[in-house]
Structure formats: C-alpha cells, structure tokens
Amino acid sequence: METPPDTVRYAVVRRTDGGRVHRSLKKEAWLDPRIEPLTFEDDEVAFPLTDAADEDRLIHLLGVPVRLLVQAAAVRDPVDPHGKLQKAVNDWLSAYGLAPHYLADVIPKKWERLGELALLPAHLSSNAAWTEVRSHPNIRALWTAMASALQVTALGIQHPIADDTFRSSQVEMLVGSPEVRFLDHGITYAFDASKVMFSSGNVTERRRIGTLNMQGETVIDAYAGVGYYTLPMLVHSGAAIVHACEINPASVAGLKEAAQLNGVADRLTVHEGDNALTLPALQGMADRCHLGLLPSSEPAWAACMAALKPTGGVLHVHMNVEEEHIDAWKARTVERFQQLAKSQGRHAAVSAEHLEKVKWFAPRVRHVVLDVRVRPLAP
Prior knowledge:
By secondary structure, this protein is α/β, with parallel strands linked by helices. The chain has three domains: 7-72, Alpha-Beta Plaits; 81-177, 2-Layer Sandwich (GMP Synthetase, Chain A, domain 3), CATH 3.30.300.110; 199-376, Vaccinia Virus protein VP39 (Rossmann fold), CATH 3.40.50.150. It contains twelve helices and 17 strands. The chain is elongated.
C-alpha cells in the first residue's frame, strides 16, 4: 500500500446523493480508501478521489451536481492488519531517520497467528534490509510496534522445522513469550511454540476428524504431537479413550495441559517415547488408529494393523503424494494393508473408505489422508 498523498482531490456532492455517489466511485475504483471523506455544515459530503478519476467522465458518470475540491488529505487510520503493519513499520523508520525503501523488505505479506503469538515467515531474515534494520539499537521498539499492529503480545520468526527425531520447532522469538494458548473450533491448544511445531494448515482435517462418530471407541493416535487430532477425537467425536503415542517431551507437556483445559484428561492415556516401543503394548485394543506423520506414516502401519481389535476398525493414513500418483498410491496402500492383515493371521477384507486431499504440501505434492476400513471375514 502506497503512502497517502499530502493533498487530494475531493468530489463534493449533496449529502442526499452521497450513498449513490459512493457506490459509483467505488465501482469505478475512483474512491481512495486511505483518505477520510469530509462533511460540511451546508449539507454536503466530499469523497476522496484516486489519481485515476477523470474529471469529465466523473461529472457524466455521477449525473448529479458535483464540484471538485483540492485540499489537505485527512489520512484514515488503516483497519486491515496489512495496513496497520505498514503504518507501524513506516512510523518506526521515520522516527529513526531510516530510508523508506526498507519498508517493502521488512513488511511480511503473510504470517501465522497462534493465540497471542504471530510468527513471521523465515525468508524475511535472509534479506539485507532486514539484517540491517534489526541491528538498530532501538529494534525492540519495532518488534513491539509490529506486534501491536497485529494485535498480539508476542512476535517471532518461524525457521524451517529441525531435521531431528522430534521434528522440533525452530522459532526465533523477537518479543514476548513462546508459550501459547488458543481456541480453535471449540478446542483449546497449549504448547511452547519454540519447542514444538503446530500445523495450522491442517485445520480442515482436524475439523473433519472431529465430525466422525467415535462414540464408545478406543482410539490410538500413533503420532499425537500436542493433540492436533487427539483433542478433536476426544472433544467432538466422543471417543471413549484415546491412547496417544508421542516421542517429544515438549509435545507431551502441551498435550497433557490441553487435555486438562478441555476437560478430557480422564479419557486420555499418554504413551511417551518411541511408538516402535509403545505401540506393541496396545495390540488388539483399538477400534481406530490415526497415523498422522508426514511425509510418511508407513513405519507404524504394521503395529497399527496389529493394534486393531479382532472385530476390525479404521486406519487414518496420512501421506505426501504427487498429485498424478494419488490413485496408484491409494491402491497400493490398500493392498499393503491387506498383506499386513494376512501376515498377522487376520482373516479380513481391507478397503478404501474415503480419501481426503488436505492441502498442497509442495508443487504437485498433496498431503492426503486415506481412511482404510478393515472388516473381519468368516473363517
């Protein structure tokens, strides 16, 4: 958004014509949203015009008495977060005599909000303007102003997820606390964003899982994290009990806190540690098993098949798959689970019940979830 001009042209009309004129100017993109309209005591109103407004066409278009006025612009405070953020950064640059060309490189086009924490994208920290600006002795004032513009109390930069066993978050805090609590679709999540990852982009799948009927079921979440899917299954789907397997101690802490906050701790059993060691203890106990690891949950397929009750159940299988190969992957996955059932002595029919395309993970690569139904067959 460009800086508003010092002076502006106004179209002055009778107040009774104001509504129709406003609609016409907005339709033509001739109304400058950065500038406040003016009102006059003699029952007139003045609308600020963009540079594109043509005077001859304007008079013909409006079809009402109109006069043009040029005077100092009454700049409107921005109401959208992008506008507020731009104003905050611009004010800080101006206060410390820094060149305005820094503006475009310092302001992010998008960010992720987790409760009172806003996470800026990692690429910001790699540009020269950002590096120079953040070395300023009064940089904290900028972080505070940016947080205020985004209506949060904490600000950080989300660097790529660590390539470790825990898939740890690598958030660099700029101001405020990484401890977050926030409400999403009636569920309170709680965790330390500097230690664990939260996949905001999976919101549609979290909500879909919460719509499934799991009344009376025993469910296993093989990769529970801070409860992305564990909590919807307990709070909304009505699962009788969820066995949550999780290797990251920081995620376990967040999951347990959230379970208390949502009043479902009595129906949650947490199995901390490597699920290669914890899943075998759950053999034959589950009506349903959730396999939510990306890029592939395959390491736990055999253990989760073995964890289903003799009466069968459902497996929710997450995977990253190239778009053109989804159908082939779906067929191979059903075949693989059929083979696992046979190798475990389970006389069962395995079928694909539903395929959900959650989001784009990368160009041409989809995050998908396949719901696999396992039904026992008569001997």
